[in-house]
Every structure is written in C-alpha cells, then in structure tokens.
Design goal:
The chain is an all-alpha fold and about 130 residues long. The protein has one domain. About 85% of the residues lie in helices and about 0% in strands. The protein contains five helices and no strands. Helix 1 runs antiparallel to helix 5 and helix 3 packs antiparallel against helix 4. The longest helix has 29 residues. The radius of gyration is 16 Å and the shape is elongated.
C-alpha cells in the first residue's frame, strides 16, 4: 500500500469539486443550460455525462476518505479521468471551431471556459500522477 501524497490529495479534491459542479450542472440544470445556449438537443446525453461526472467525483472523494486504498485503484481512476478529459477537449474544441459562427455569446463563453478548465485539469493530473509515482 502506497501513501497518497499531499499534492495528489489536493488534486483529487479539485477534481472531485469540479466533477461535482459539472455533474450538478449537467444533470439538474440541463434544460436551463440548453435553453440559454440555444442548442436544440435531447437532454438525455448531457444527463448521462453528468452521471459520469458524479461517479468520478464519488470515486475521488472515496479515495480521500478511505486511507487503505492501494495505488492501483488510484491509477485506474486517473486513467478514467485522462480518457474523459482528453476526449472532452477534442470534442469541445472541434465543436467550437465548427460551429463558432452560429453560436450565441453565452455558448462561446461556455466553450471557452471548458477549453480553459479541461487542459488545466489535465496538466494538474499529469503532474500529480508523476509526483505520486516518485
């Protein structure tokens, strides 16, 4: 069993809080967000994504609460986060580039915020993983 370093705990807490925020926004406020952004879309897909965010947040908080987790569980969680963040950056960036002329001001702000937060989280996770691995 490996001791979880403080930097890894802080990054897991940040991931947990951001995933909880995105989960609340995409599960409970989907209709309002889609109306503000002016996107005609079936709300089931953002809600499924919100469920994934809640699952990741629960996993992050469980790692912080339970002291006897092995490093293998944490690596599994990081792998899920990396896969989701990289695919989110690619999807958000391509959607933003393709639909930029037709997006409202709110939608542009929403995508720019996502494109700023996701790479920061990715870099934080990579640095945390490398420091924990040492």
């Amino acid at each position: 069993m490996t001791e979880i370093k403080m930097f890894t705990k802080i990054s897991l807490l940040i991931y947990g809080l951001v995933c909880t925020l995105y989960g609340v926004l995409t599960v409970f406020m989907t209709d309002m967000i889609l109306a503000i952004l002016g996107i005609p879309m079936d709300p089931i897909y953002p809600r499924m994504l919100g469920g994934i965010f809640f699952t990741i947040a629960i996993f992050d908080f469980l790692i912080l609460i339970k002291k006897d987790w092995d490093w293998e569980y944490i690596k599994f969680g990081w792998t899920l986060l990396y896969a989701m963040i990289v695919s989110s950056i690619i999807m958000e960036g391509s959607y933003f580039v393709l639909w930029y002329p037709t997006l409202s001001t709110e939608a542009i702000g929403f995508h720019v915020m996502d494109l700023l937060i996701m790479p920061i989280l990715l870099i934080l996770g990579i640095v945390s993983y490398m420091k924990q691995k040492e």
